[in-house]
Design brief:
Strand 6 and strand 7 form a beta hairpin. The relative contact order is 0.09. Strands 3-2-1-5-4 form a five-stranded antiparallel β-sheet, sandwiched between helices. By secondary structure, the protein is of the alpha/beta class. The protein contains eleven helices and 13 strands. Helix content is 36%, strand content 22%. InterPro entries: MoCofactor_Util/Proc (IPR052698), XdhC_CoxI (IPR003777), XdhC_Rossmann_dom (IPR027051). This is XdhC family protein.
Length: 313
């Protein structure tokens, strides 16, 4: 499964290979209640066909026209600012009250080199973030250091690895967590070494990995775009997974169970050599406290917890 960025990069490369001119639009800055996050993209073809979104529909029409004009002129870049205080607010429909700045660059050697798109895709596939800096005086984009900060006259966009979620335990909650996570763009790995659980025909479209979680994780190598969730309540299965996850860069680690169960889990992980600082990374009981009662509600609370961790909320 491709995430949104993978899909957009692939579409841009396909259109270029078909001989079309293509432009990349990027949300460069937002203020207030902007509909799309900073760094969001749309790709626009010379005939007006586009994929992705930079405004949730508010200003796309103007961005498409501007991008087509750049392509018709043989290439270039443009910055366009939209907000409710602008004279064009009614035309562009920014009724949400926010303001956004969009950078439009044609995909060519002088602005966004096609090889840079390949580089972004390759680094993300390898589980590594990559930063790209755009010179706002020339519109030229190039790879930058990952810790590159903002500077006057340039825009830096950091592309994290694709979202992944390892779910340990082929249980009822997983039946809801798998499809919900996929809808949010996660690539899901479901692991359960128990034959009776793994053999159950309850997970359409996903094969249950029957290895022990620590074995599967050694191959999967959780990175900064990975969430790890344990659901079995069985220390023999959950604990090795948590120990392995705590040694990784996973952005969210969660374990299902009551507060009493989690207290016992902390004792075991401490005895296994995990530090208090590392154990504090575990969200236990898993998920945001929304009084979840059913398996579907528990899955929702876990995904809400993962989303909060991802967005730094």
């Amino acid at each position: 499964m491709l995430d949104e960025l993978d899909d957009l990069l692939g579409k841009a490369r396909l259109w270029l290979a078909q001989g079309h001119g293509v432009a990349l639009a990027t949300v460069m800055q937002t203020w207030g209640s902007a509909p799309r996050r900073r760094g969001s993209h749309a790709v626009i073809r010379d005939d007006g066909l586009f994929e992705g979104s930079v405004s949730g529909g508010c200003v796309e029409g103007d961005v498409l026209v501007a991008a087509q004009a750049l392509l018709a002129a043989g290439g270039g870049f443009d910055r366009r600012d939209y907000g409710v205080a602008d004279d064009d607010a009614w035309s562009f429909g920014l009724a949400c009250g926010g303001s956004i700045a969009i950078l439009i660059q044609t995909i060519d050697e002088a602005h966004v080199p096609p090889a840079l798109l390949d580089r972004i895709a390759a680094e993300r596939r390898a589980g590594r973030p990559i930063a790209v800096a755009s010179d706002l005086a020339t519109g030229a984009a190039a790879e930058a250091a990952r810790d590159a900060g903002e500077e006057e006259g340039r825009f830096v966009n950091l592309y994290p690895p694709p979202l992944r979620m390892m779910i340990v335990g082929a249980v009822h909650v997983s039946q809801h967590l798998v499809p919900l996570a996929r809808q949010l763009g996660y690539r899901v790995q479901l692991v359960d070494p128990r034959d009776s659980f793994a053999a159950a025909d309850r997970f359409a479209g996903i094969a249950v990995d029957t290895r022990w979680p620590d074995e599967a994780m050694a191959e999967w190598r959780p990175d900064g775009g990975t969430a790890v969730v344990t659901l079995t309540h069985d220390p023999k299965i959950d604990d090795p997974a948590l120990v392995a996850a705590l040694g990784s860069d996973a952005f969210y680690i969660a374990a299902l169970g009551s507060r009493r169960t989690h207290a016992k889990r902390i004792e075991r992980l401490s005895a296994a050599g995990c530090t208090a600082e590392a154990i504090a990374r575990i969200d236990g009981p898993a998920g945001l406290p929304i009084a979840a009662a059913t398996p579907a509600e528990i899955a929702l609370s876990i995904l809400a917890g993962a989303t909060a961790a991802l967005r730094g909320a």
